[in-house]
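Assess this one:
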Amino acid sequence: MSEQHYDVIVIGLGPWGSSTAWHLAARGKTVLGLDRFAPPHMHGSHGGATRLARQSSSAGAQYTPFTKRTFELWDELAAKTGTRLLERSGTVFVGEPGSMWFDKTVASLGSSDFEYDVLDGKTARERFPWARIADEEVAVWEPNGTVALVHAAIEALQSEARRLGATLRTGESVLGWDETASGIVVNTERGKYTADKIVVTVGARANHLMQLELPYKVDRQVLANFRQVGPPKPAIYFAKPPGSDEAPSYGCSEPSGEWKFSVPGKGNWIDPEDLSQDLRPGDLERIQDVLRDRLPEIDPNPVSTTVCMWSEVEDGHWVIGEHPESSKVVIGTGDMGRGFRYAAAVGEMLADHVDGVSRPETSLFLPSRFVTAKA
């Protein structure tokens, strides 16, 4: 293959990389996207049919502007492609004050102009009789919460990027790259390409590919689908007890009519190259125990399972920005389990870094806050 030159090469075409390719192509850049897999797939953090896309955030009020922007962009992409990307399900949050995740979620809504209601336990049970909610618990209802459709969203990002001129190639592994005086040479198993800049959006595999020591760990997550009776239900989160800093259990109705449910663990660290769809002892039982306790109308016998992963950065924020040692390399990683719903806005942030656009409000994501290269 002869060497070809592009303005930007995007390495990794999951939701963040596909979104970046879309934004860059829309700005008139010549773009090449490369991925060793063929997203959507089951080898990363976007496995399965859906992702919950709520407006509130447990990461802090500073995410509210990004939330508004990402919903604007998803709506824009849906209109351009004629595709339904978000299902407006409404979202219920159940918990007690003192649970870190619950408190942060309520605080983020309170500091925003998003619509929501706070219900005591008795009122919540009357409104959502299919869920077990204790007297001492509080339920927060977010009517504009949505469920993102994974395959449709990634395919829409990629189709719009291609329509705008981007070249996207899957099934092609990147072996590495070299920086030159004029740009970057990217070497793959099929040949080499040159570009002025590259964007690396390989998710949990960033440290492997870039030979960095970004301070994140990769957490294995199991999702299970179950049969449900009746019409689709709102998405729901159940916070851990007061004093806990663990992520909540959560579930939503799927396009298939099934119910997806997950009980995230903490400290279930893996090497991303070891991700497997095989279940481990206790995986299903942990989910079924919470399902029986909280959602007794759902059949606890699973229809299917999905194993995915998310990257947990030590300070709780994404890693987005220039490589600390090269202005020609832009990094996007550390999805923190909420990366999919923000993908449309994250792609815009990454494109802005390529273009040198000043975004002071995104400075908390810069890799330079803690990156050290491996010796």
Q: What stands out?
A: The helical segments are 15-26, 64-81, 100-110, 121-127, 150-163, 206-210, 283-294, 343-355.
